[in-house]
């Protein structure tokens, strides 16, 4: 499948399928978050190792497998009943900003518009348009496209993944967890969806609950640096310093950007 790379955001390194108190934003959501072998419909969309930007949603800093790009915009989030992450919760990894311009995303929207005029039930065009809108930070309209794709095919794992990533950027964490879970149900080997769900749980300070998701992401890809990094942060939050150090050292071996987390959470 194909954003690792998670916080949520989008990038050429993220599958489009990804905050913890000043935690380094995901490399590559949300969310440059996730790197997996994603289907053709997720071209340029991932939350994993694409770039580490600490994303403070309030301030706006944007940056998951090379087929899931998702970039966040300063869309005005609607009020929700989501719990507020605790003071020690790390920031969700920022989804890497794609190495493309707003004009290119607008052009993609026009292409999708033309395809949808010919075939209004073209789910791939709806998802592509939704991703482009998300890259332009038009999150609410992006959700509308993902919803439409799911009305065409209720088991579309790519649409669920992208909707989850967009909801992560809107801080709708419980809804994001639900969508990532459905993406996993219909594509159990999507490491990016596991990673995204783990990030959403961390945003709710549910570090223990996030662990199985990072474990599974690592099982699916033993070289998944971001999953090691965020699992290490969970261990640190759960007062397991030795386990935290082990994971963070492994993350730094795979991706030097993780050295910042190693110093911060393991004192190295």
TrEMBL record:
Keywords: Repeat, TPR repeat. Residues 60-97 are annotated as: Disordered. Residues 68-83 have a biased composition (Polar residues). GO terms for cellular component: cell outer membrane. The keyword Glycoprotein does not apply. GO terms for biological process: receptor-mediated virion attachment to host cell. Gene3D superfamilies: Tetratricopeptide repeat domain. TPR repeats lie at residues 123-156, 157-190, 191-224, 225-258. InterPro entries: TPR-like_helical_dom_sf, TPR_rpt, Ycf3. The keyword Repeat applies. This is Tetratricopeptide repeat protein. It comes from Solirubrum puertoriconensis.
């Amino acid at each position: 499948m194909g954003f690792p790379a998670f916080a949520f955001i989008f990038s050429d390194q993220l599958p489009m399928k990804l905050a913890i108190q000043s935690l380094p934003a995901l490399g590559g959501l949300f969310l440059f978050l996730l790197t997996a072998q994603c289907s053709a419909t997720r071209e340029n969309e991932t939350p994993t190792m694409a770039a580490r930007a600490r994303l403070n949603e309030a301030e706006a800093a944007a940056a998951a497998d090379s087929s899931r790009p998702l970039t966040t915009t300063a869309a005005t989030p609607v009020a929700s009943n989501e719990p507020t992450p605790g003071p020690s919760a790390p920031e969700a990894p920022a989804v890497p900003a794609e190495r493309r311009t707003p004009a290119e995303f607008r052009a993609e929207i026009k292409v999708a518009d033309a395809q949808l005029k010919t075939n209004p039930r073209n789910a791939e065009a709806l998802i592509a348009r939704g991703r482009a809108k998300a890259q332009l930070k038009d999150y609410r309209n992006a959700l509308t496209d993902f919803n439409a794709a799911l009305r065409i095919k209720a088991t579309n794992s790519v649409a669920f993944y992208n909707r989850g990533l967009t909801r992560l950027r809107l801080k709708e964490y419980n809804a994001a967890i639900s969508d990532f879970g459905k993406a996993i149900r219909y594509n159990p080997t999507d490491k990016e969806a596991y990673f995204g769900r783990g990030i959403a749980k961390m945003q709710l300070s549910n570090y223990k609950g996030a662990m199985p998701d990072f474990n599974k992401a690592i099982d699916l890809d033993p070289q998944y640096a971001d999953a090691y990094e965020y699992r290490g942060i969970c261990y640190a939050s759960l007062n397991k310093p030795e386990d935290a150090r082990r994971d963070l050292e492994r993350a730094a071996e795979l991706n030097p950007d993780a050295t910042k987390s190693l110093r911060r959470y393991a004192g190295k």
